[in-house]
């Protein structure tokens, strides 16, 4: 068998990959041409992300199906560690390795909902109705309880009867905009997960 | 982290204390393994439990929960009395030589100026340095003056003998001495120990002081600023570092600037107070630039409406009448019926806050609660009766709850800051389910509607709402790229170098970094420490060059690290007085090349200041050096002192057995109704601590099938000896109660928790994982924080989740 150095490495790599897959219990049955399935990841789009759990910030590659066209909805089918990432170098912990189940959790929320006072159930809301209702609640409370001056007559411009807890995994960009809005309302009861 | 994950590989010794990286930060922990395998590093773990970090350690020492200050105070005593300190570093890079004001004193567990009724120190101004006639702080370079920081510190910790420390911590004396001796070896110049800690330190009523004690040890050993050294806080969530940096805390503004108090009515005085002038000759004292950062922030928020005439909108920022409205304060007010509305953005307070009964009752007093989350959280359903897990009377709860679905990480672009201060950009891969929207779209949508209402109807103080700058391509959903450019900063007018007159940035261009910020309104920057994250060259956070040309693990071309892409803070201290690395082979970080500072990292010093000019490495401090003596910065005093957890299994502080005011943190805030529900050891004899499992993340992964399969059911960990005493076998169901409530769970009986001898008594410890609740795909469980006490750290108000008292019974 004639083989140059490059071909030799190629064959070795394929062999190694194949035997590792077999070792993981993925040994293929006898190959009949009509049973051969395409390797799913070969036709997916790869997107770089970072793990949303702890603060190591592991690099991820998310594989989604769909050709990326404007009318195509991508669906994430696999998430794995990013081998180029200097910290995790492709590895993930048990939580990170199960991230797909977070993305596709049956408990993901799909629609705005409201639970009315005393009620034992959720009712679906349209986004516009939800945001308008919140805006009215916020304005009513702010208008009623905003403090422009304290008892000494000092300018204090604060609003204490509504508070805001910011997230622990939202992006800097979300956090920055959240801060900009919350402070402009005069809110001081404002914290994020770092407090606890 | 002062350093970062990969840099751990440069450590000679790794000390994990107050954390459990192997289980809570597994992929970061591999750099400990790397240090052990390729840098001959040793690993020491000090923890109440024999964790999986401990299982691969070279040495493990048990410790009673909440006593780390005693452990480290004893270490300080050991290092000083054995003369195992990095002398050149301590003498020059710390405040050891500074003379302290005569009024400062410490007696029987209390510092001078304690007001027991207020539970606070009222003369903190005397916790300061003595000033000389030249206006600078007085120093004694020989460290012999009895009032110099070094001598005061030496005296303070001389009480922490191995014998006494052992009786407080329950750590056997031989284990203490073994650990201390090994740590002491890193006092050699060029040797470095890293300290890795996490919530096991922050979640105590003396948490901040525990961290300070660790930092003091590192300074004595010369380990701050060193590759493989540092104080490394392993943050618990993927972006609480970023949200803290961006100032999303009651009393902060972005970049660790602070809101004004009521008394600060004068803008110029507000700025002057924060513009720290150097306390010693030739020091940089970088906060002198405060006004540049502040004005640039106000220009980013209020644009053209922020002008010199209106003090850049100073009145539009709320003023504080108390130190802060932290979550414990807010939930206490809510419990009293003084809060009407509340927003939870990706946060589950009924699981995350102490004393669930109080938190639930507080939420039930709200008029409205808005929850923004990708998942159906327990908090959003606090009104739902789930039997024992959430026993409430739904019909009587009059709170309107609106729940808004948000995207998760996979469905949006943006950046997160990891523990190592790296801002890493991520990309959207798919659309969210149903009608979920980004937090950005929700905040914008809400703001919009409010602005419209205030424009049309008027209302209370509309100025800050109407004047807010909102110049985004899509006002209803600003782009993450636009927001990132805004917090990174841009020139509003041409910005020139004040010395040479050279043009640095044209109007409209992105700035290169915070050195280009101006106080005259010609620059806008939403978070000065993030300045340079998105420059005229583009998004630096999206960089993916993982090259490591010096093999120091700094990967300066990967993502972007604040500040100024610097990977290790205070790195000037990795070089000696003459500007050469303490170890020129293995700890090659920054050095003076005869003309400028250069190195394998971005030097943390004025680049053209020669070593002989004497500018010291701690450029953010007006001292120029690091503080052993915290001056007035800490609530409990300038030197950390051991105080017992509020629920102590021994009922007294062995350091001050006859001074009940010094049993637990004298300066911790306690609300009235909470003091009454602290338990005592006669009824609740076991010291409990909460913890995380490798297979779960907080209260999220109980919604994920794989995680729910790997750890399906709530459990409680007790030691074999206690199990035998109580007749509890592995697999039995047990009831664990505190004075605030109970949980029931499966008992896991292990060898990992051993009884300790403390103050002459046997103390058993109980470990309680946190991850269960009454919603999710995992089996329902009790909220662990049903048990925990509603009291926080004296400075940060972070709750004491890690030390409280319980009883355990078989059910």
| Biggest sheet, spatial arrangement of strands of chain A | 1-2-3
Mean pLDDT level of chain A: 88
Shape of chain B: globular
Provide the spatial order of strands within the biggest beta sheet of chain B: 27-29-28-33-26-32
Gap from first CA to last CA of chain A:
66 Å
| Strand segment tally of chain B | 33
Commentary on this structure:
The complex is a heterodimer of chains A (196) and B (811). Chain A has 196 residues and is of the alpha+beta class. Chain A has 5 helices and 9 strands. Chain A has a domain at 146-196. Chain A starts with a helix and ends in a 5-residue tail after the last strand. Chain B is of the alpha/beta class and 811 residues long. In chain B, the strands form 12 sheets. In chain B, strands 27-29-28-33-26-32 form a 6-stranded mixed sheet. Chain B has a 5-stranded parallel sheet with strand order 3-2-1-8-9, sandwiched between helices. In chain B, helix 4 packs antiparallel against helix 7 (162-169), helix 4 packs parallel to helix 10 (207-220) and helix 14 crosses helix 16 (356-363). Chain B starts with 12 loop residues before the first strand and ends with a strand. The mean pLDDT of chain B is 98. At the A-B interface, strand 1, strand 2, strand 3, helix 2 and helix 3 of A face helix 2, helix 11, helix 14, strand 12 and strand 13 of B. Strand 8 (162-165) of chain A pairs parallel with strand 12 of chain B.
Throw out a few tags for this protein:
heterodimer, A: 196 residues, alpha+beta, 3-stranded antiparallel β-sheet, two-stranded antiparallel sheet, 5 helices, 19% strand, B: 811 residues, alpha/beta, Dimethylsulfoxide Reductase, domain 2, Rossmann fold, 6-stranded mixed β-sheet, 5-stranded parallel β-sheet
């Amino acid at each position: 068998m004639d083989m140059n150095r490059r071909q030799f490495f190629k064959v070795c790599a394929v062999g190694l990959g194949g035997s590792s897959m077999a070792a993981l219990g993925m040994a293929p049955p006898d190959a009949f041409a009509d049973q051969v399935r395409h390797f799913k990841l070969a036709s997916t789009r790869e997107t770089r992300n970072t793990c949303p759990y702890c603060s190591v910030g592991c690099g991820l590659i998310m594989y989604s199906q769909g050709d990326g066209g404007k009318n195509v909805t991508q669906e994430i089918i696999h998430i794995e560690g990013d081998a180029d990432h200097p910290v995790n170098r492709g590895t993930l912990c048990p939580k990170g390795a199960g991230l797909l189940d977070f993305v596709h959790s049956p408990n993901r929320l799909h629609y705005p909902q409201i639970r009315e006072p005393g009620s034992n159930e959720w009712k679906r809301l349209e986004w516009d109705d939800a945001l308008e209702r919140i805006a009215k609640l916020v304005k009513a409370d702010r208008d009623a309880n905003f403090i422009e001056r304290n008892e000494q007559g000092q300018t204090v411009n604060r609003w204490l009867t509504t508070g805001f807890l910011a997230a622990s995994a939202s992006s800097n960009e979300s956090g920055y905009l959240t801060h900009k809005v919350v402070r402009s309302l005069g809110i001081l009861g404002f914290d994020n997960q770092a407090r606890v | 982290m002062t350093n970062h994950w990969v840099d751990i590989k440069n450590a000679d010794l790794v000390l994990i204390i107050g954390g459990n990286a192997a289980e809570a930060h597994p992929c970061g922990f591999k750099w400990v393994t790397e240090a052990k395998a390729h840098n001959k590093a040793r690993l020491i773990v000090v923890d109440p439990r024999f964790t999986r970090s401990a299982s691969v350690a070279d040495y493990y020492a048990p410790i009673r929960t909440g006593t780390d200050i005693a452990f480290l105070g004893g270490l300080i005593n050991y290092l000083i009395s054995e003369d195992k300190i990095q002398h050149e570093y301590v003498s020059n890079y710390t405040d050891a030589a500074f003379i302290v004001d005569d009024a400062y004193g410490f007696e029987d567990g209390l510092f001078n100026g304690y007001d027991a009724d207020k539970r606070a120190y009222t003369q903190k101004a005397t916790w300061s340095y003595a000033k000389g006639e030249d206006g600078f702080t007085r120093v004694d370079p020989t460290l012999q003056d009895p009032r110099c920081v070094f001598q005061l510190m030496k005296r303070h910790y001389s009480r922490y003998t191995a014998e006494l420390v052992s009786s407080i911590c329950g750590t056997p004396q031989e284990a203490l001495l073994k650990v201390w001796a090994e740590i002491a070896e890193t006092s050699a110049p060029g040797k470095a120990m890293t300290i890795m800690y996490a919530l096991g330190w922050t979640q105590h009523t003396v948490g901040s002081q525990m961290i300070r004690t660790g930092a003091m040890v590192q300074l004595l050993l010369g380990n701050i600023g060193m590759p493989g050294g540092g104080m490394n806080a392993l943050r618990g969530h993927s972006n609480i570092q970023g949200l803290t940096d961006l100032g999303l805390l009651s009393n902060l503004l972005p970049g660790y600037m602070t809101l004004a108090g009521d008394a600060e009515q004068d803008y110029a005085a507000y700025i002057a107070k924060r513009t720290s002038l150097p306390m010693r000759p030739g020091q940089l004292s970088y906060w002198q630039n405060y006004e540049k950062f502040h004005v640039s922030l106000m220009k980013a928020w209020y644009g053209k409406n922020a002008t010199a005439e209106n003090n850049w909108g100073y009145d539009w920022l709320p003023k504080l009448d108390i130190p802060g409205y932290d979550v414990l304060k807010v939930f206490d007010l809510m419990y009293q019926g003084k809060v009407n509305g509340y927003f939870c953005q990706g946060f589950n307070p009924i699981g995350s806050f102490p004393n669930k009964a109080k938190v639930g009752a507080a939420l039930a007093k709200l008029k409205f609660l808005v929850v923004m989350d990708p998942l159906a959280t327990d908090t959003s359903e606090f009104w739902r009766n789930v039997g024992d897990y959430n026993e409430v009377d739904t019909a009587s709860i009059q709170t309107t709850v609106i729940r808004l679905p948000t995207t998760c990480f996979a469905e949006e672009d943006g950046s997160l800051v990891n523990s190592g201060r790296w801002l890493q950009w991520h990309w959207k891969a798919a659309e969210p389910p149903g009608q979920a929207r980004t937090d950005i779209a929700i905040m914008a949508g809400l703001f919009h509607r409010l602005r419209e209402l205030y424009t049309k109807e008027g209302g209370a103080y509309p100025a800050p709402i109407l004047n807010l700058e909102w110049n985004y391509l899509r006002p209803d959903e600003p782009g993450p790229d636009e927001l990132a450019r805004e917090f990174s900063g841009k020139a509003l007018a041409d910005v020139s170098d004040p010395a040479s007159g050279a043009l640095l940035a044209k109007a409209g261009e992105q700035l290169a970094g915070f050195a280009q910020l101006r106080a005259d309104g010609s620059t806008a920057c939403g978070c000065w420490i993030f300045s340079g994250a998105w420059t005229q060259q583009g998004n630096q956070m999206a960089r993916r060059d993982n090259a490591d040309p010096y093999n120091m693990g700094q990967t300066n071309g990967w993502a972007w690290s604040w500040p100024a892409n610097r990977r290790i803070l205070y790195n000037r201290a990795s070089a000696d007085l003459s500007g050469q690395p303490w170890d020129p082979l293995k700890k090659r970080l920054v050095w003076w090349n005869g003309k400028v500072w250069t190195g394998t990292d971005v030097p943390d010093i004025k680049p053209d200041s020669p070593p002989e000019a004497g500018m010291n490495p701690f450029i953010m401090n007006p001292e120029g050096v690091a503080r052993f003596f915290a001056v007035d910065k800490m609530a409990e005093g300038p030197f950390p002192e051991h105080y017992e957890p509020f629920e102590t299994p021994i009922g007294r502080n062995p350091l001050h057995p006859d001074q009940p005011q010094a049993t637990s943190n004298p300066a911790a805030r306690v609300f009235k109704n909470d003091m009454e529900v602290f338990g005592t050891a006669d009824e609740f004899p076991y010291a409990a601590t909460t913890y995380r499992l490798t297979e779960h993340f907080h209260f999220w992964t109980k919604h994920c099938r794989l995680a729910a399969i790997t750890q399906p059911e709530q459990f409680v960990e007790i030691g074999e000896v206690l199990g035998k005493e109580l007749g509890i076998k592995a697999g039995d169901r047990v009831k664990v109660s505190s004075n605030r409530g109970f949980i029931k769970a499966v008992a896991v009986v292990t060898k990992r928790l051993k009884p300790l001898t403390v103050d002459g008594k046997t103390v058993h410890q109980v470990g309680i994982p946190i991850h269960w609740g009454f919603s999710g795909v995992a089996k329902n469980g009790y909220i662990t924080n049903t048990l925990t006490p509603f009291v926080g750290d004296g400075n940060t108000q972070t709750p004491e989740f890690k030390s409280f008292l319980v009883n355990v019974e078989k059910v």
